[in-house]
């Protein structure tokens, strides 16, 4: 129920449900609520969710990262910096983003920030012509627009998808595994790529399978 209310943007009702529940909330409940706060841009409830999540799991780097995501989406860079300082004091480190793709029975690994293949820049231009606009809110750094676009282009799932387009025969689905939740910008990009390249793309992240086909995703844009 908390998930359903959060999806619908009824965050206050979700909080009331948690508070009135006779059962002790599982950390995943607060994680779900915290993730929805980025979508609906609610810092007050995000702080509530993060505090309770950290009370239950003090070693959760994901709680800090998700809270920083909420602040970044609202350009509250001082708060982003404050959250990062709290992470450092707790000796917690954000898990680096990795993606894997199997091509001809060989697994290829990509890490966020790896060198961009020239073909990815060409693919980005095709995406722009198809209406793709980078979601700069997903770039968690207080830098200029150009730098943010470059940071987003280096996300591991984009690198893996681009490699699949280069190495797999036309029409063969691209299957990527990701060790973190796919960000909103990469999700939007994968939808766009599936349409302009006429290619099915399956991404397995930490929440679910995303099946991109003809510009749509099986998750219906909520994950």
TrEMBL record:
One of the GO BP terms on file: RNA modification
Domain DYW: from-to ranges: 131-223
UniProt cross-references to InterPro entries, sorted A to Z: DYW_dom, E_motif, PPR_At4g14850-like_plant, TPR-like_helical_dom_sf
Molecular function terms, GO-annotated: RNA binding; zinc ion binding
SUPFAM superfamilies in the record: TPR-like
Protein name: DYW domain-containing protein
Pfam families from the UniProt entry: DYW_deaminase, E_motif
Similarity comment: Belongs to the PPR family. PCMP-H subfamily.
